[in-house]
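Entry:
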Amino acid sequence: MIPWIFFYFFAGWSEGFAFPKNIHINDWHKELEYLRIVKVALMQGELPFHVKGFEYMFVGHTTAFLATPIYPFSIQSILLIFLEPMTFHIWNHLLLFLIGFYGCYLVKKEYDLGLTAFLFLTVTFNLYGGFVTKISAYGASNLGYYLFPFIIYILFRLSKSDINIDKSSYFSLSIYLSIVLSAILFQGSLHYFAQSVTLLIFWGIFNFKHIKFLLLSAITTILLSAVRLLPA
């Protein structure tokens, strides 16, 4: 998270090196505008089914705002009532960073990693080039990346205990996976959601004995994410 604090201050250099209200780099202005739309919707208590001018911001050229799940709209979005979009994003980034750190800790605990290995894991995960370049260019909709460690942790747990895993644990892991996938989508991280599903499909091909696990997760994910998937 520390490099991003410097990035946010640097992006606001014209405002006296304070956290910026806007960032005009690549798609940042669009991402922040999406958050402003959500902010207004929350303050007015109205669902933004169609937003005038949205067709000029979104590549799909549509006014159907709810049909484009590329913006954060999760439980913490309620803070937009009190915070400006950029301020909300920074606090949301910190929250997701801490969640991602906890996910890495679970992997450490599961495999009893030493301090050096754990530091290597967290640094590599947080500074992975694909994520760094994406969030630098596109902003808020990429924070779902921080939930990846939980997917890996769940698959590791399943693979480690697939010989003697009981039905209740099997069911619980499936629900946990569905919650993680849904959380990624509610962060507006549509690309990372698609990548996660792709990973699980290929994992399922080589672990076909867990096909019931994946089917249950898929059904539960669709139910949990229906409010974002169905409009799209």
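DSSP finds ten helices and no strands in the chain.
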